[in-house]
Amino acid sequence: MSVPEVTPAEVYYPNEPAAPSVQTAEIPGPKTKKALEELAEVFDARCAYFVADYDKSVGNYIADVDGNVFLDVYAQIASIALGYNNPALIEAAKSDRMISALVQRPALGNFPSAEFADILKDILKVAPKGQTKLWSGLSGADANELAFKAVFMNYQAKKRGYNTSFTTEEETSVMENAIPGSPELAIMSFERAFHGRLFATASVTRSKPIHKLDMPSFHWPKAEFPSYKYPLEDNEAANKAEDERCLKIVEELYKTWHCPIAGLIVEPIQSEGGDNHGSTAFFQGLRDITLKYNSLLIMDEVQTGVAATGEMWAHERFNLSPPADLVTFSKKFQSAGYFYHDPELTPNLPYRQFNTWCGDPTKMIIAGAIAKEVVEKDLAKKISVVGDYLYAALAELSKKYPTEILNLRGKDRACFIAWDSPSPAARNAFLVNMKKNGVNIGGCAETGIRLRPTLTFGKKHADILIQAIDKTLGEN
Fold this sequence. Notes:
Strand order of the largest sheet: 3-11-10-9-6-4-5
Number of strands: 16
GO molecular function: 4-aminobutyrate:2-oxoglutarate transaminase activity; pyridoxal phosphate binding
Distance between the termini: 35 Å
Number of helices: 15
CATH architecture of the largest domain: 3-Layer(aba) Sandwich
Pfam families: Aminotran_3 (PF00202)
Largest sheet: 7 strands, mixed
GO cellular component, one term: cytosol
């Protein structure tokens, strides 16, 4: 399939830069350094790469206050769907519905607006197959924590009876954080997983120590996620054996863990932990095990969702039977929450899954507008075509730099592509030098390099990216 000549970027951004432009010898440049010094007086600015000028950022290009303009294939840690200053989203932001949601900021659980049902329906139009309901949150980590609450309440409701009242002992003991009102239950996750930095999500995050050091954690089980050999087509037998090994560990944990495992959370592609892939057989195996042990399956689509891998939701490629019980979302949707379908995942009484705002209608309006653009402009298909082109070019480049581009992965997953550097130091130097060559790019795990461009990324952007990678590696 040929790459289309007219790309979504050209439709949205007729004035998008033709190429990156680097004005300063070092990045961050002098104006960024000065701005960060000022920012550091009131905010922890140590994680900042540079200070952006969002008014001058367009489409797939991000500008900084020094006048540098970078091709952005990191896109705000995978959270920009349609590019900077997208005209369709600007129109949604100007709407009367948006103004009302901004000014009123309703407590949605108690005082939903007359438009709220329609706002939700716009999102549900692109819900994962089999999902018919949603509960909204404020971030990816919040979405996962809310999903855990739903899982735990559902687990206990099944034991007690959905419409059975709480006992006096349950109501008394829960106020002491004691059983039976506070039961000992667990969520299973995987080595190298990342699900957030809040208290429960930190307990299931296993990617880097810095994410959770000094925080009390729940004693919850950790299974092993497959570590495949690449290229996949040359290692089918070994990778099949790896799937079977990991599934055996999962089932053994269900059998032996000291308390019931009420749910299992897994990413369709482990992202922060290194862009680690799993096969259809592995994920269907997880689905089968959760059913066997009366546990619920949570698919964490925070980073992989909204067409990032060429499907609206990455796990739909596995055709799980039956569908996952909950699917969490955030990032490219600019909103957050979880989809579900079982009515009994709605708690039996009001005010159990609840907070003041129950999400943010302004972000849900933008999510609906993003969904509309993705569907109407067929962005999932278009980014898949570009991704095939980009992957083929990277595969050729890996032959030129066989010791620098290792374990290339993400074939047939649109532009959700990654590879490994030979060492952490080499990876970090590569990321720095790519900025000097005009590309803002991100890493994952210790040695991984991940591509997370917008859905308007086209062939011309891929060509610029490949040239920058070639130049950067050639300068080593």
